[in-house]
Amino acid sequence: MVVIDIGMSILMNKKETRKLQVVPYDPDWEKQFSHEESQIKKALGDVCLAVHHVGSTSVPGLAAKPKIDILVVIKPGSVNIDPPLHAIGYETRGEFNLPLQYSFAKRGKIDVNLHIFEEGHPEIELNLTFRDYLRTHPETCKEYALLKSALLKEESSFEKNHPMFTGYTLGKAEFIRNVLRLSGFCRLRFVRPTNINEWEKVKKLRQHYFFDKANILDPYQWTFDHPDHVHFILYLGVEIIGYAHIQLWPGSRAAIRIIVVEEGQRNRGFGRQFMEWIEIWLKRQGFRSVHTEAAPDAVQFYAQLGYTPMPFNDPDGYESNARDTPLGKIIGAC
Question: Residue 139, Cβ neighbours under 10 Å: how many?
Fold first, then answer.
């Protein structure tokens, strides 16, 4: 499975040494995938649209961690897929840094990481694009193998400095980004920031588009590591072009504190797509309404997305700007 644009995290957690094994390519990996593929299709039935072997074990001749990465495409709106997968040995793992991902794992005679996305999710194309480029470009595949070998000689590769990823995974990010560039990958996608490069871009976007206007330094960076605040970034291909800061309130309410798309990328529907993804994610988390205080030049944008006048009722008691308009939208059943 491809993890893109991952560097050393600025959310510095206690170092944790991780067990890591990379072995020469094993032809049995394809057989193991085929066995799991048939089980998954049987378990999910008509909900399952496609099953793909991805990650390094899917590239003939490439050394890899002996864990089979499988990407499953399901029908949009599918629910309750956990029970049938639990029945064939998979455990639920969560989204990691990819919103709207269903992640599962199986450990035993065969180790499998299962990544499930609804049809149309951009991570599907990203993973297939990276896999197919390596399969058809032997020299690039050889470079990847050499990079892995070099990383295994570094002590940091065996440490987990971030709750999601080891140094080994982090060290492959620039290579993966370059391959996606070469392949022409240009999909719009959104993720939660997980590394120093992404967080630095977040800081720049917040400061430039919001706090420079007030001639102050961003006083809310403490929200970067707070459970009631969620931050998303918007990619176009491998470049970050947007950012959103969402606060999770009690009572199944959420607030859009900041959402911005770079000036050069506006009026292309990117902001609308970003908002739609965020609303789907919030609804999946059980939130029933989304609220914002829209600046005068943003009221029309929100109105086009179905936001109407609605009291903001900030539970933190922050003072509102008199020029802003309180808007809201119901996204879930009461």
Answer: 7
Looking at 137, 154, 183, which one is the last position of a domain? 183
Q: How far apart are CA 249 and CA 252, in angstroms?
A: 7
Determine the pLDDT at residue 5: 35
CATH number at 32 reads: 3.30.460.10
* 179 and 224 together in one domain: no
**Structural domain contains residue 3:** no
Q: Do residue 30 and residue 149 come from a single domain? A: yes
For tokens 């205080």, what's the residue?
A: 293
Rounded to two decimals, the pTM is: 0.88
Contact 289, 332 (CB under 8 A): yes
Whether 271 and 298 map to the same domain: the answer is yes
Where the chain has pLDDT below 70, the residues are 1-20, 154-171, 334
β-bridge pairing 289-294 and 253-261:
parallel
From residue 222, alpha-carbon distances to 18, 207, 248, 282 in Å are 28, 14, 15, 22
Predicted confidence at residue 163, as pLDDT, reads 47
